[in-house]
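Long-time lurker, finally posting.

We've been working with DUF2335 domain-containing protein (Tardiphaga robiniae) and I want a structural starting point before designing mutants. I don't trust myself to interpret raw outputs, so I'm hoping someone here can both generate the C-alpha cells and explain anything notable. Sequence follows.
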Amino acid sequence: MVPADVDAAVIAANSRDVIEQNCGSNDVLGHEFWEVWVKDQFGQMATRFVEVEGDKVVRVYPVFEQLVFRLNTLHGEAQLRREIAKREHELKRITVLGSLICAFGGFAATLGMFIYLTVQGGENAFWPSIIMAASVVVTCGTYLFGKFVMVDPAALGGIPKRCAAGVTPV
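Top reply, 14 upvotes:
Generated this for you. Predicted structure of DUF2335 domain-containing protein:
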C-alpha cells in the first residue's frame, strides 16, 4: 500500500480533512495500521488511523478510542489462539506419555518372557519366544509410528513378487 492510497481513504472517510502528514505504517498484532495527521473541519490538528490488509483499506478510524477497541479485540483473539495452542500442546504431551507407558509395558512383558525362557528353557520355549518377538515388533511399531504397521514384503525389494504373494517359484 502506498501513502497516496491511504491519504485517499482518509479523504474519502471525511472530505473536510486536509492531509498534513502521513507518518507511515506500523505492524500491531500482525495487522498493518497507518497514522495520518490532518487538519479537521475546525482547523485543528487531528490524527486518523487506517487499517490496511494487503492492498486494501479495511477501515479508517477517526478517533483513537475506536482504534483502541479494535486493538483490544485483536489482542483477545491472539490470547484465544495462544490458549488453544497451549491446550493442544498439553494434549500432545499426554498422548506421548501414554505411548511411552504402553511401550514400557510391552518392554516389561517382553523382558518377563525372556526371563521365563532363560529360566525354564526346554520344550516349552518355542511359543513364548514367538510371543516375545512379536511383542517387541508391535511395541516398537506402536512407539515409532503411533500404530502398528505391517510391512509389505514386496516393498522390501529383495523378495520376488510371486514369492511375496504366496506363489512358490518353479
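Before you design anything, note these points.
The chain is about 55% helix and 20% strand.
The first strand starts at residue 18 and ends at 28.
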